[in-house]
Amino acid sequence: MKLSVIIPAYNAAATLGEALCSVEQQHVQPFEVVVVNDGSTDETAAVIQSFLDRLPLVCVDQANAGLGAARNAGMRAAKGDAWAFLDADDVWGSNKLAHGLDYLMRSPETQWFYTPIFEWSPGIEGAGMRMRACPKIRSVEDFLATNPIVPSTVIMRSDTTFRWEEDRDMQEDVGAYLALFAQGILPEKIPHCTTKYRLDFGMTSDAEGHVDKVMRAVAKAKELGHISEKEFKLYEVRKAYELARTYKKRGDKSEQKKWKKEALLKAKAASVPSNLFWRLRWLI
């Protein structure tokens, strides 16, 4: 089975080399590595060029169109049997593709897969890494309550009807996943934690702006009939909880309390699973 790695890159010179090194070090090598240079104005192109003799690179250059459009361009260019997505600021463990290939072969009826992540803050003294909770998804409610799927962990068969959101006012991943759920196409969890997800960098550095874009995408999913009003309200609780948790990690007690209060208020109007409710209640 041929695996196509897809990496969108916009002004990613500071991190792209590390991401590509993690692909180079895979125990199972990919068929191709499609890097989409999304109109970068820094040294991203030079970093890509430096790996031409080290990886089976396919270079796609385009005017800046955003993360979703760049991933879609990579999918159109890819020739493999499955797509393995990696963002330019994240890093894989060396067995990432080996585990992915194993599950693609052992679960031929499953269209897509995801894994846990290590939350990673390089350069921040004492931050280290921690594994983020990543439960199995058995329904759309599970996804909305736990939100465990990070794009850099996703492996998907290339015959899947799938498209990342390209409207830059919306988060590119959540609505795309919900479109699959609406078709009854659920993912399988690969239990091995194989991805280091960089925190407080790129979109995660603007937590509230990120949540605004996510909620616009989820509102669109509701308008399209992919989720119900009840499910939409559950996701509002989840994202308010995530903001409270983010500010707790940053040591901002004022913002933490503000968003915990907001989450508890929204929870009164939503059907919240007990595991999320108690995690929220004990988020001091």
What would your notes on this structure say?
The protein is an alpha/beta fold and 284 residues long. It has one domain (3-205): Spore Coat Polysaccharide Biosynthesis Protein SpsA, Chain A (Alpha-Beta Complex). Helix content is 40%, strand content 16%. It has 10 helices and 11 strands. The protein has helices at residues 16-24, 44-49, 67-77, 96-106, 140-146, 174-182, 207-223, 229-249, 253-267, 274-281, and strands at 3-9, 32-38, 57-62, 82-85, 91-92, 112-114, 117-120, 129-131, 155-157, 188-189, 195-198. The strands form 2 sheets. Strands 3-2-1-4-9-6-10 form a 7-stranded mixed sheet, with helices on both faces. Strands 5-11-7-8 form a 4-stranded mixed sheet. The chain is globular and about 55 Å long. It starts with a strand and ends with a helix. The mean pLDDT is 91.
